[in-house]
Amino acid sequence: MEKTRKQVCLDILKGLLAAVGLTLLMMAVVAALIVWLRLSDSLLTGLNQVMKVLSILLGTALAVGRGGRRGFVTGATLAMLYMILGYAGYVLLGGSAFSVGEMLGEVLIGAALGATCGALLSNMPERKRRRTA
Q: How high is the pLDDT of residue 39?
């Protein structure tokens, strides 16, 4: 059955909320690690990238699902929205030390990751549901 635009938008919103939620949860864990373990800036930068990747993968998985439709576009859209929202939140919280070129590069890399994940998921067979007696 073909999804309507409203359903696709709701799936993207569901995936985006999951990605943001996972990011906030991981940020709390990283903040605790910073306090207790005194992490270096370079390690913090690496953890930040890992958080972005995991959040995009989770969001795309929830938005597209196995055997879903429009996985490439849905994954890319979700990832771009996630990255743009992240940078907008950074700027709103007072951050200003970033390059527009770097930001656009990260948005495009995130879009590529989301599109790839979405395409892979949409080409997987749907899970068969168990029959209940």
A: 84
Task: Tell me, letter by letter, the H, E, C secondary structure of the chain.
Answer: CCCCHHHHHHHHHHHHHHHHHHHHHHHHHHHHHHHHHCCCHHHHHHHHHHHHHHHHHHHHHHHHCCCCCCHHHHHHHHHHHHHHHHHHHHHHCCCCCCCHHHHHHHHHHHHHHHHHHHHHHHCCCCCCCCCCC
21-35, 83-97, 106-120: segment of lowest average pLDDT:
83-97
The residues near 54 (Cβ < 8 Å, ≥ 6 apart) are 22, 26
The one-letter amino acid code at 28 reads A
Whole-number pLDDT of residue 112: 97
Please indicate, yes or no, whether the overall pTM of this predicted structure exceeds 0.85: yes
